[in-house]
Design goal:
By secondary structure, the chain is of the alpha+beta class. The protein is built from two helices and four strands. Bound molecules: iron/sulfur cluster (SF4) (2 copies).
């Protein structure tokens, strides 16, 4: 299944992806950087569309997930 991957070096924790995700798969721990809960994410791409800096990529889950 595809999942959302966030460039965590560039994320500014604006929260746009968090509000875009209907499954509550995105959180911003300590307000520092957005993180995806891969047990919830279905790779729909809604968060990627909303990131103003286009930091979210939708791709196949890596082997270590
Ligand atoms: S791809 Fe969809 S389900 Fe996954 S984090 Fe983004 S909005 Fe949520
Ligand atoms: S929308 Fe983009 S910059 Fe904003 S919190 Fe999400 S990943 Fe970070």
């Amino acid at each position: 299944m595809k999942k959302a991957f966030i460039d965590q070096n560039l994320c500014v924790a604006c929260g746009c992806c968090l509000t875009a995700c209907k499954l509550n798969a995105v959180s911003i721990p300590k307000g520092v950087c957005a993180m995806v809960d891969y047990s919830k994410c279905v790779g729909c791409g809604m968060c990627a569309k909303k990131c103003p800096a286009s930091l979210i990529t939708i791709k196949e889950e890596s082997a270590n997930e």
